[in-house]
Amino acid sequence: MKKSLLLLAIISTLNSFGQTATEYFQSGIAKHEQQDFKGAVKEYDKAIKLDQTNKNAFFNRGTCALAMTDFKAAMTDFTKAIELDQNYANAYYSRATVYVSQQKYKEALPDLDKTIELDPKVPNALTLRGQIRAQTGNKIGACEDFQQAKLIGEKQADKYLSQFCGNEKQAVESLILEWPKSENWKIGTNQENDQMTMVEFIHSNETLEKWTEFGTMIAIKGVKNVAMDKAMNMTFDQAKLNSPKAKLTFIEKDESAEYPWIIFTIECPNFKNDKTPESQLWYVVQGKTSLYTNFRAVKKATIPAELKDKWTVFFKTAKITSE
After folding, report:
1. In whole angstroms, how far apart are CA 130 and each of 52, 113, 137, 169, 214?
2. pLDDT in tens, 50-96
3. Domains along the chain?
């Protein structure tokens, strides 16, 4: 009986512990929203004392410290939040703003780089890095940041493009690939939005519903510095979702080129909802401002050797241009 009562007491204490930490945290948020930063800090202090793993409590306390220009405390809290979660994009951005608030612009760049690597849509991350790049002599990098910020809808992007990039025409990058006229290709669809452009090709006597050979060119805007093996494996992982028996075969790559590229095949004997086979030869190339993914496909379980050689030669004629 005593053991049971002791166990119940422990459980009750643990439950109370969790609830109390959460209550203090929520109380901190309430005061934080009312801009009672000192009061919020006291509540976050209590939450952290009870739960040292609450990354959001450290982060929120850091934002209060920053609002009160206590840069040392803010830096400590943002760093602790990052230690608890190394993928905490907002914490990297906030730590960068601590450096910026102290006019330590170069010191802010690594945290901004990490923020954008993790989540380029963190508000103002791209425009802030762009301003720092512009002011430290990296005009090209700055204009790239402002252009990317514009693509994701940052309202201030146009202002910074005008301020730092002048009226200069921004170079537009594209991948040029001439589909052989002798094969009678035509465009099946041509689509574009803020994130990507996609063109699908079929033979002139075929349709998108009934085709024997199919081609696709996709430009994923703003995606940079992707390792070629990673691009290949991500593409294969997507294929396996619909075709568990899919087979990946690496053919060739050059990551030392100005525009790194890789060629591989994904051969699918069937799909979950379709028994018709389809095999694709992929050519992926990393541009300066976009990632280009291209493939040709046939409705076969494997790609015949002569087609594989032919398509490989074809994709190697691709060129990236900036105009």
Report:
1. 35, 11, 11, 17, 40
2. 999 999 999 999 999 899 999 999 999 999 999 999 999 999 999 99
3. 2-165 (1.25.40.10), 173-322 (3.40.1000)
